[in-house]
Amino acid sequence: MSPSMPDTPTPPLALSPPDLRPWRDGGSGVDHVHVRDSGRPGPTVMLQALTHGNELCGAIALDWLLRQQVRPLRGRLVLAFANMAAFERFDPNSPYASRCVDEDLNRVWDDAVLHGPRDSVELRRARALRPFIDAADVLLDLHSMQEAGAPPLAICGMTDKSLPLARALGQPATMLVDTGHAAGLRLIDRGGFADSASPRQALLIECGAHWEAISAELAIDVSLRFLRHLGVVDADWAESHLRCPLPERQRLLRVGEGIAARSQAFRFVMPTHHLMVIPRAGTLLAEDDGHRFFTPHDDCVLVMPSRRAGEAGQTMVRLGRYED
Ligand SMILES: [Zn+2]
Fold first, then answer.
1. What's the CATH fold of domain 257-322?
2. Would you give the DSSP letter of residue 82?
3. Is the pTM of this model over 0.90?
């Protein structure tokens, strides 16, 4: 979630970047975007990987699907490798550096930005991807997280409309509804995906920690469950390739505003981890240049806390509570 962190020690990498050169021409007219039409009625279903260029799990999942020669039984299937420019710079000795080239590709999806005068590597790619995204009825955006061992979660956007899709997948255990990001619109919050009156749905899956083997396994597993649920692939074929057990139950985590750093002095006063629960309201959580932050309610859940502030204004953690 946070920007590249050059002073964060690099963990051992269990995943290697797949060779995506064979997948450059997907027949769509846009590099690394594959469109496969069944010729039969049905939804347009899109899977996107590499919104962040160093999050390899999604690329491994789409590479796997393409090697399986996946074809839709109905409707259209779109497979997109998003930030190829960043991915092509991936260096295992500096894996955080290739998250993006100029800016975060997951903050540019507002029309005012896409159709505005600004230019960047990511904006050019977003403008090329936009027609496919705007034609998608259902979209799955595959990501991973920074914290070692972080349990996966589904980010369902700012409304409850995509919750039924997350429940239908049965995976992962935590489903999150949040308030978006002030820094810019995410893909899953674009247009009809965030409009309660529209049937279009989008999910962002944080498949686990960057470069841990389980993140790629989960990315393939969730992609198969997604395609099976939508009737795009043969159910028995999908079943035979599932690889992660379903959680006993899924829980909805509703997330409010985040805590932003006031200065680079921001620090948590306790060890923190993703989805850590702090039982009591009013517990001192962090200090920042004389300012103190307390938990606002009982059973406060920390969502993806950052270790240190790179700059003032950076969101250090978001706070939520389980609704069930
Ligand atoms: Zn990401």
1. OB fold (Dihydrolipoamide Acetyltransferase, E2P) (2.40.50)
2. -
3. yes
